Amino acid sequence: MILSRLMSVVLVLTLLFAAPARASVSLLRDADIEYGLKQLAAPILTAAGLSSSQVRLLVVNDSSLNAFVVDTRHIFIHSGLIMKLDSAAALQAVIAHEAAHIANGHITRRLGNLRTARTAAGLGMLLAAAAGAASSDGRAAAAIALGSQNSAKRIFLAHTRAEESSADIASVRYLKRAGIDPKGAVEVQELFRGQEALSTSRQDPYVRSHPLSRDRLRALKGLVAANPGGKRDPNAEYWFARMRGKLTAFKRAPSWTLRRAGSSASKDIALMRQAVAHHRSPNAKKAIRDINAALALRPNDPYLMELKGQILLESRNFDQAVAVYRNAANRAPREPLITGGLGRALLAANRPKEALKALETARGRDFFNAGLLRDLSVAYAKTGQPALASLATAERFALRGRWKDAELHAKRASDRLPRGSSPWQRAQDVLHAAKQSQRKRR
């Protein structure tokens, strides 16, 4: 189905907020990290009356500090914020605050008829709008278009102070209901204290989209003091440490990771971080040694198996990588990122038919994985299906906000696909979004 109502609303947002320097948001997809986020978010979403199976948490590959929502089904958190926070409770406070914006109807009221983006093109446009909204340049452009900076700020990501106060109250209630210490909420706000005095260009995006004031911080401290309680959750602390450890291992220099891995919260996390650091050095022998040691401590962990598969694949041990990914996929059969990894390994092992089966299974469960779309296009090409290869390529470019390239490949796919078929309709989604973006540039 062509999401015309979605596209028309998102087009307005894209026109208003798309900044020249940043056309889209890049997602960092990792099954281990996303599973950890689910573990932290589940009790909060339940407390908020939201479905933990319907609201997805995705990581934005950005070192700045921010978290935001653009619809009622996605919470986006910058990798930089996860790495900066010091406790699971602080990250859960961020999740609770963003969940409050969804549960309190702030997004619904702001965007009118906008609903969740169910296609790569739809999410691509939402993320392009979000990227521009986090930019001072995009906000200035919106102010010119609307005639007033205040009205521009109220359109998209920049929540009003009233909404922030409402979200603060609700988030503390959710945290208490979930048995989580709400002091993490104060930790988060203290992190940004004083930034409102900085020029807009020097502020972290979180402050621009979540206005902070002394009165609001004072009120939040009062709320937390009036709602004591909660206890340390070993499961949440473990997954927070693991997420943060894995992110820093991939983001920081290997030498930085190796100096600090020994102070990790548990031995398996330390070994995982060392494996990543050695893999990036690169030293495949030491990387495999350490990931095997981590698996000896957690032998049924599909996410550690996935990491081992990645190390083997990127070290060009293709057949071994296939075996490890298959084992991981068998243990987590509904995890599309692991199934997609199996497909990638099968492609590298020159087994395109088997790869296509795994990749299509993963695609059916995850429409927002640019790497998976790249692998799908290769698998379709190798199995003699050029139209579907073009479609996967078009959707990948759309997800990344590269609309000119998306339109080119969507046109190729549309011309070759049976008119009215599901793939043809998906090509129309991309063409529609690309044409709207082209009009903006004219």
UniProtKB/TrEMBL annotation:
MF terms (GO), sorted A to Z? metal ion binding; metalloendopeptidase activity
Q: Does the keyword Lipid biosynthesis apply?
A: no
Entry keyword Ubl conjugation: no
Q: Which cofactor does it need?
A: Zn(2+)
Swiss-Prot/TrEMBL keywords: Hydrolase, Metal-binding, Metalloprotease, Protease, Signal, Zinc
Signal peptide span per the entry?
Answer: 1-23
GO terms, biological process: proteolysis involved in protein catabolic process
Query: What InterPro entries does the entry give?
Result: Mito/Outer_Membr_Metalloprot, Peptidase_M48, TPR-like_helical_dom_sf
Where do the segments described as Disordered lie? 410-442
Ranges for domain Peptidase M48: 37-222
Any single Gene Ontology cellular-component annotation: membrane
Q: What is this protein identified as?
A: TPR repeat-containing protein YfgC
